[in-house]
Design a protein that fits this description.
Helix content is 55%, strand content 8%. It has 14 helices and 5 strands. A 3-stranded parallel beta sheet has the order 1-2-3. Helix 3 crosses helix 13, helix 8 packs across helix 9 and helix 11 packs across helix 13. It starts with 7 loop residues before the first strand and ends with a helix.
């Protein structure tokens, strides 16, 4: 397809540590696929990380490198997408400021994730404008590249709807500068972490992409399964089993259906079930591990790739901001 005919996609990932399996099924494997179908801008959004990690900000640069290694090792190709670091494109901050002048405060206060994250991360002081204004900066991230498509899971749908409202409001005041970004709703399986809760870095229950085979076995083998299966002879229900969430994401349907039937009839045991998903993960991650070793051994190469992406993103953002300033009359 002609590059100019491709629609533009924008998506971002917060550098709060190395990527885990939940990040992979939620976004990253989709990023790899989309780079062949769209003109993709992928951002490591370190300013967004700062909104919750401001009291330990020096770790963010290291996490940025970790995430870049993950993305490149999974198959993002700098020749087919623009991979860049948000804070290196200062135009994001300028557009965020200008959008803040026209965005009603109640629009930000009603975003469900604002209160949800405050409760989930109660140990952090998140009652700041930076955290409240997270979706507004996210809007700037999207529209500064005039993105037409944004891949999101249902948990982020409210953020994109706010971005669409803000875009309409800007265009109504100043003219049609921005396309209204459309939602590419992606099915995001909820993965259980090692303690049975939703996989999350903040819960300390994550299985990381860079975890070795030995570590993956140690993390998954003791995981709790359906609590009704106290003995191998007890039938279970895969829909109530935390480990089976991993099967839905990483095991082929034929094998998964067989294991589910064996679980319900007590023909198969939990250890066998865990071995199957562990083996599937190892097959999936082996090529990634090999690539990651090469990037880790050559950090200059990784930073050079990011700097090239920064330059490409900066040129696009600067062009947009010329349009914005002209429309506002600055």
């Amino acid at each position: 397809m002609n590059e100019q005919a491709k629609k533009t996609v924008l998506s971002g990932i917060r550098p709060t540590g190395a990527a885990h399996l939940g990040n992979y099924v939620g976004a990253l494997r989709n990023w790899v696929r989309l780079q062949d179908e769209y003109r993709c801008f992928y951002s490591i959004v370190d300013w967004h990380a700062l909104s919750s990690e401001y009291n330990d900000s020096k770790v963010i640069r290291g996490y940025t490198f970790e995430v870049a290694c993950d993305l490149l090792s999974l198959g993002l190709n700098p020749e087919r997408c623009v991979l860049f670091v948000q804070s290196q494109i200062k135009e994001h901050a300028e557009l965020h400021l200008l959008l803040s002048m026209i965005t009603p405060l109640p629009w930000l206060e009603r975003v469900p994730t604002f209160k949800e994250q405050q409760q989930e991360l109660a140990e952090k002081e998140l009652n700041t404008y930076g955290f409240l204004g997270y979706p507004l900066l996210q809007t700037a991230d999207i529209i500064i590249y005039k993105a037409e498509v944004v891949p999101v899971g249902e948990d982020q749908a409210s953020h994109l709807e706010l971005a669409r409202e803000i875009t309409r409001r800007f265009n109504r005041f100043y003219g049609p500068v921005f396309p209204e970004p459309q939602m590419l709703l992606t099915e995001v399986p909820t993965l259980a972490g090692t303690d049975g809760r939703k996989m999350s870095k903040s819960y300390g229950n994550a299985i990381y992409l860079k975890d070795s085979e030995e570590v993956i076995r140690k993390k998954i083998s003791p995981m709790v399964t359906d609590t009704r299966r106290k003995r191998r002879s007890d039938p279970g229900e895969p829909d109530d089993c935390p480990v089976f969430t991993l099967h839905r994401a990483f095991v082929n349907k034929e094998t998964r259906d067989r294991l589910a039937a064996d679980c319900r009839s007590a023909k198969g045991g939990c250890l066998e079930c865990k071995r199957v998903v562990i083996d599937s993960l190892i097959r999936l991650l082996t090529p990634y591990w090999e690539k990651r070793k090469s990037y880790e051994a050559n950090p200059t190469r990784v930073w050079d790739i990011l700097e090239e992406g920064n330059s490409r993103a900066r040129r696009a953002a600067q062009k947009t901001m010329e349009d914005v300033r002209s429309a506002i009359g600055l």
